[in-house]
Amino acid sequence: MPLKVVGVGAGYFSHYHYDAWQRIGCVDLVAVCDRDLTRADAVAKRYGVPLVFEQFSAMLNETDPDIIDIITPPESHEALLTIALATNAAVICQKPLAPTLADARRMVAMAEAKDRHFFVHENFRFQPWYVEIKALLDRHVIGTPYSVSFRLRPGDGRGPNAYLSRQPYFQRMERFLVHETGVHFIDTYRYLFGEVKRVYADLHRLNPHICGEDAGIILFEFEKAGRGVLDANRLSDHEAVNTRLTMGDMLIEGAEGVLRLDGNGRLFSRARGEVEREHEYSWSDEGFAGDSVYACQSHLVECVEVGKASPISAREYLRNLEIEEAIYESSRTGIRISV
User: Fold this and answer.
1) Neighbour tally for 308: CB within 10 Å
2) Are 189 and 198 in contact (CB under 8 A)?
3) What is the SS3 assignment for 98-112?
4) d(CA 226, CA 113)
5) Angstrom distance (rounded) from CA 6 to CA 23
6) Where does a domain end: 98, 121, 144?
7) Same structural domain for residues 83 and 117?
8) Is residue 298 one of the residues assigned to a domain?
9) Where are the beta strands (DSSP E) in 180-247?
10) Are strands 248-254 and 227-233 parallel, antiparallel or unpaired?
11) What is residue 216's DSSP assignment?
12) 142 falls within a domain
């Protein structure tokens, strides 16, 4: 019997969710909800969803879902979660999980009090290049990692119309670069290199037409070994056919070699003292960023079906938000912050 899935939200990124749900064989996407009924109806027609609702509670009452996918801006998440927890369904919530760390902690406590599955839709760790890098690191192909650096350069944040065509609420976010985008790399760095123990950050705003920061440099100190740098700037671009595929370039240096990710999802490796060679691996150029939304949602379905723990459960995800908070505090105070 397929799991019944419903979604709330019909904005830009919801299309990746609905496309993935329709391709996961063990689920049945039965309804979509949005305050803009015209937009919800358009999404439903595009993805073959049979039911459309304007009211979230009405959708839940009529469909009795197994999984509720919340795909709306962060300010709406807590109210929607409160309604969702009146059902027995598992809940998946887009990131940012909540406007503040305190809000996120309260949401996690609410879900745990009801003993519900509660996950964050964090898809970056499921992007195929990071899955492959993780496998290579686990095989110690470059020895002990010394450092990782990522140059975030999507090139989509210039001028007065920045972000308006896809996610206009980006312009109004008082915390933007780290809260909306950098949190992906907090989670990815933890996935690849282990726990973070200290951070230092220098954040600033380049585009005067938005409210929050859109550039900065963040230094991560990992518990086990090595350092990480996130050099981020949403105005500049990088060399890629699609600058939103990887959103930048990564370099990992270790005791026995180097790994490099380019903007087209290609991986390169170089053993110490040798020349660089492309590392061949397979991935699907479908959906979002190597079909990472499909991989993320497939993982979460498996967790619901067999009761498996997930590294992107909302409880586990709080650690990313604690690190995010430390980054903002470091930028504010100009000092290195322990997490």
Assistant:
1) 10
2) no
3) CCCHHHHHHHHHHHH
4) 38
5) 15
6) 121
7) yes
8) no
9) 196-204, 215-222, 227-233
10) unpaired
11) E
12) yes
Strand arrangement of the beta sheet that strand 227-233 belongs to: 277-279, 267-271, 257-261, 248-254, 145-152, 227-233, 215-222, 196-204, 337-338
Residues 92 and 19 placed together within one structural domain of the fold = yes
* Alpha-carbon gap, residue 276 to 48, rounded angstroms: 46
**In-domain check, residue 110:** yes
The per-residue b/e assignment along 216-233, b for 16 or more CB within 10 angstroms, e otherwise, is bbbbbbbeeebebbbbbb
CA–CA separation, 324 and 100 (whole Å)? 10
Cα–Cα dist 229/249, whole Å: 12
Whether residue 76 sits in one domain with residue 8: yes
Residue 308 belongs to some domain of the structure: no
Separation of alpha carbons 327 and 199, rounded Å: 6
State the DSSP H helix or E strand holding residue 42, giving kind and residue range, or none if neither: helix 37-47
Provide the CB-side half-sphere exposure for 34 (13 A, CA): 19
Q: Residues 327, 182: one domain? A: yes
Nearest to 258 by CA among 277, 239, 285, 283: 277
Task: Write out the two tokens for 9.
Answer: 């939200």
What's the domain range around 169?
125-288+320-338
Q: 10 Å Cβ neighbour count for 61? A: 12
pLDDT tens series, the chain, 339 aa: 899 999 999 999 999 999 999 999 999 999 999 999 999 999 999 999 999 999 999 999 999 999 999 999 999 999 999 999 999 999 999 999 999 999 999 999 999 999 999 999 999 999 999 999 999 999 999 999 999 999 999 999 999 999 988 889 899 999 999 999 999 999 999 999 999 999 999 999 999 999 999 999 999 999 987 999 999 999 999 999 999 999 999 999 999 999 999 999 999 999 999 999 999 999 999 999 999 999 999 999 999 999 889 999 999 999 999 999 999 999 999 999 999
Distance from C-alpha of 215 to C-alpha of 203, rounded to nearest angstrom: 6
